[in-house]
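WARN no homologs supplied; continuing
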Amino acid sequence: MSNDFRLSISDEAKNKIDNLIAEHKIRYNKEGIPALVWIDSEFNNGMVESQPAIGFYLNRDDIVPADFLILGGIEIALTVPDEYISRFQDKTLDYENDRFVLR
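OK structure emitted
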């Protein structure tokens, strides 16, 4: 990821990610590393609308170091193909109606 990459986060999205991190730790008794991913409806036959989502890695070594960024004080990996980076550039990650969105 280039040094000029910019992505911000709303309070709602930050709070939701904090909650997901806490839930993950309780459920798996292990710290998870949040990862911002892109769900593409083209690849799931339209079952889920294209949107950003949060997943988790259990092993830091599975993540390319350049994919890490800090959003609202949360270390998160942006694990999307290079051609999807532009979807996130200069956007704000928000959370509303039980889903993450980009604004």
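The CA atoms of residues 8 and 92 lie 5 Å apart.
OK
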